[in-house]
Sequence to fold (627 residues):
Amino acid sequence: MSTDTTPLLSARELSVRFGGVLAVNQVSFDVRRGEVFTLIGPNGAGKTTVFNLISRIYTPTGGSIHFDGIELTQRAAHEVASMGVARTFQNIELFEHASVLQNLLIGRHTHRRSGFWADLMFTASARKAALHDREQVERVIDFLDLQHHRDTLIAGLPYGVRKVVELARALCVEPQLLLLDEPSSGLNVEETDDMAYWIHDIRREYGITVLMVEHDMSLVSKVSDRVLAMNQGEVLAQGSPAEVQVHPGVIEAYLGSTHDLSSLRRPSA
Amino acid sequence: MRFTFKTRYEQDLNLAKHGGHRFWYSLLLLVLAASPWLISEYALAQLTFVLIYGIVGLGLMLLAGFTGLFSIGHAAFLGVGAYTEAVLVNAGLPFPLALAAAAMLSAAVGVVVGLPALRVKGMYLGISTMAFGFIVAEVFARWESLTGGNAGLHVKAPQIFGWALDSGVEFYFLCLLLAVGSTLAVLNLLRAPTGRAFVAIRDSEISAQSMGIHLAYYKTLSFAVSAALAGLGGALYAHMIKFLSPDQFDIIQSIDLLLMVVIGGLGSVHGAFLGAIFLITMPQLIGAGKGLLPDAIGQAPGLKAAVYGIVLIAFVLFEPMGLYGRWLKVRTFFSIFPFYRRGMFKRQKSFQKSDRLR
Fold:
């Protein structure tokens, strides 16, 4: 783990508006180096929107995002990956008609060493670069136990494996910061456990900082150092998983207010 | 059934994956090289056309099949290549230079046409490329001082330092050489990061972008390479047909080209050539079949178009992977006989794609 105490990612007063909807409103948080930081909140809270702001799919209407001291909002979407930010998607965005291996190799795109003409001729240097990429990809394949599926097309894989392949592809980017959008959605209990181990290992072995959105609270409390709860685009609470879970605002957001039960009562006959 | 035992990563990089590939492709090359002495002059001319359309098909395959950008104006690139070649060769330039110029100019035009591709997708891209096709055809017709307009333009035989390739055999070898070269170039691209970036853009732009792929650059590049190949094919086409007129590069030609890659099998390099074979042999088959039909149908003017349409619909419905897909199925059937099942190539339907980000 790094001794550098400056936050790896810091969002300040981040806002984004879609027409009349304020999807994210004045959200600020810091992700420290080497930690697992989780965003939680009910559906529509703006968690994925925050992700899309960081990976520059959306442009914020206000606020700033600093990654490793660099202002992210000034960068183009395709530059974010080469700065060291990789992500997965909530609903899996793999390259369906390519094999697992090819998907992972695409993850190595930011590290490409051969240009167009070298590719066209497939020169000795392009071949060398291809072999190097392959070796790096094989490490990730070993790490996530994907040897079995190496040459299978994504279209033929079950959902649980696709989820792992997407994680593997993000690791192939060799990021400093990994954004995981609901890593356990659609996974069964066993697969979710595996995912928890992998997130642990990713942090321990690769020293990658993880920012994730997750609904499964058992996974959240297992792996995360700090949790940020959001509702309707605003920050509700921030702290350790245990602290956030008992925060009255969070409970209210999920279950409704504990004070006003009149709406639940049956109208008296 | 064949199992390749892999011991080195390099085996996955080689174009010929195993002895079978080496044997069959060598044999194919040998047969192609010996063709001038094996088949009639007429058949050789048809084979030359197959090679030329194969080159154009490769370009369109790279664009439509691998990058997912459909162009309904590809005949325009063919035309740019053809007219460039014709004008330059008629002016006395050695043909290798003219060929290079034809490919480069086409590529440059491809970059210009690629620009709208950065903003529009799918059907809208089709419409904008189609409009571009109309514009270019109009330019060919109106720029009479250069292209001869609707009166047409005669193309001299390709020559270099006084030596002219005027026989069909010499020209056939030129086409064969360029076709093999183009195929290797496209295969090289596809096994390298550039080609993977194309495929990534085809399958999911949003995640391609998150993986650090510069969408605008790669889409433009795909257009440029595709147009260069079409231009190269066009230049050869000019020499083959020896007379150019604007109506050879109209929308019908563009549709024929698209038909070629769809029927050949989108997303396969083989498909480009299988489609070219289809496109060249179909009129002959229709011609031969005409006599067998009653006159009311056999002599009807729109017969060719109708047959093409029916074949296209049949392919889209029953064999979306085209001729190459059909070949894969037949091959699998025999290689694992008797274990082939009907559902083996069925794609699993999935409804997981996020439409939230579009």
